[in-house]
Structures are given as C-alpha cells and as structure tokens.
UniProtKB/TrEMBL annotation:
Keywords: Transferase. This is 3-oxoacid CoA-transferase subunit A. GO terms for molecular function: succinyl-CoA:3-oxo-acid CoA-transferase activity. InterPro entries: 3-oxoacid_CoA-transf_A (IPR012792), CoA_trans_fam_I (IPR004165), NagB/RpiA_transferase-like (IPR037171). It comes from Sphingobium lignivorans. Its EC number is 2.8.3.5. Signal peptide: none annotated. SUPFAM superfamilies: NagB/RpiA/CoA transferase-like (SSF100950). It comes from the Bacteria. The keyword Transit peptide does not apply. The lineage of its organism: Bacteria, Pseudomonadati, Pseudomonadota, Alphaproteobacteria, Sphingomonadales.
Amino acid sequence: MSERKIFKDADEALAGIAFDGMTIMSGGFGLSGNPEHLIAGLLRSGVKDLTIISNNCGADGFGLWTLLNNSQIRKMISSYIGENKLFAELCLTGKLELELTPQGTLAERVRAGGAGIPAFYTRTGVGTVVAEGKPVETFEGALYVRETWLRADLAIVKAWKADPEGNLIYRKTARNFNPDMATAGKVTIAEVEEIVPAGTFDPDQVHTPGIYVNRIIQGPSYEKRIEFRTTREREGAAG
C-alpha cells in the first residue's frame, strides 16, 4: 500500500539515501517553497562534499544557508546569489565552486533532466561567459548555445498537500522549481504541510503525479517568512 511512502520525519526519510559527494536538487525560490525540514535533516546527517542544484542558497540563517555555513556544500549550481553574504564570500574566496546559470536556463535544464532530454539550444547567454566552452550553432540565422540536462541523486521538494500515493499539490508561487525537480532525481522526497486521504484530489488538480515521489513527510510547522518587509503609511492616517 502507498502508506509505505509516508515517513515519520526528515531523518527517517533520508536514512539510507544521503551520502557524501551526492548531487541534490532543492526546490524553492527565495524564501518560498523551500523543503526546510529536509534541509535540516541533511544538516543533522552531516553529509558533505555536496553539489546542490537550486535557484539560490537560502537566506541568512535559513534553508540551504545552514548547509553552506556548516561546510557541507562543495558546489552550487544556481542562478541567484542575492543578498546571501556567505554565498558571495565563499565564491569570491574560491572556497565554493559555483556554476552560475541564467534562471530560465536552469529551469529548462532541470525539466530536460526529468524528461530524458540530454541537451537543448537557447539564445540566452550567447556571447557571454555563460557560453564559454559550450557548443554554439546557428538556427534560422541566430546563434544558440547548447546547454545540457541536470539530474540528481536526490530531489527534495516542498508541496502544500500530498495524498498517500505521493500525488502533490503546490500552493501559488511556492510551486516555482519544485515540480520540475521532483521529476529529475533518482529519489524524490517531498515534504508537505498536509497529507490528505487517498481519493481526495481530483486528478486535474495534481501538479506532480505520485509516480515521481518516493517518500513523503509532513512538516511539523512552517513560518511564512518575508524576505523584505516593506510598509508605508496609509493615506489619510494621522501623523
């Protein structure tokens, strides 16, 4: 029965899966849709020399930043460094290998990995450092650079709801990279806010079919973080 996919917590779900030197895809964009409990489980496991494929590397004190701060990450394949001072410092000092990839190209490389497409061509990055060392060809009079797929030993994703079969539904922008990454890992572990009974989902609601998901955990709690809290005084408010 599908209950075999449901694990007690992150530590149990990662047992027998995590190993030194592995490649991990981690969903999320900024502070939205991060598999934070699975990341915390990787921190506790102590696995090291990791290659992480993710849009960014968390934020100060949160998410993948914790693995970076604990010297568990050897290489990042990302599109955004952002305000992560630790990420920037380690890259600039040569202590962290970085493969910087345009955001759309990163998404397509992950999608290609899940779809079994080893390479594709894109105009993004032509004539820049992004294209260095990569084949460039002409199609209909325009130059295109060849990019290769991305796949991983493990994909960790965050969804809103799952059923016992592993069918997943994401909530709004927390979907981001998660659905593509769920298809491109040899093993995919999903953490969710709620596990619902089998048969709850209309098939048309499902964003990631359960065939891609090997293990599920229900996160104990989630804090809705805001990266930049910006406020203004309401018009007409008393001074």
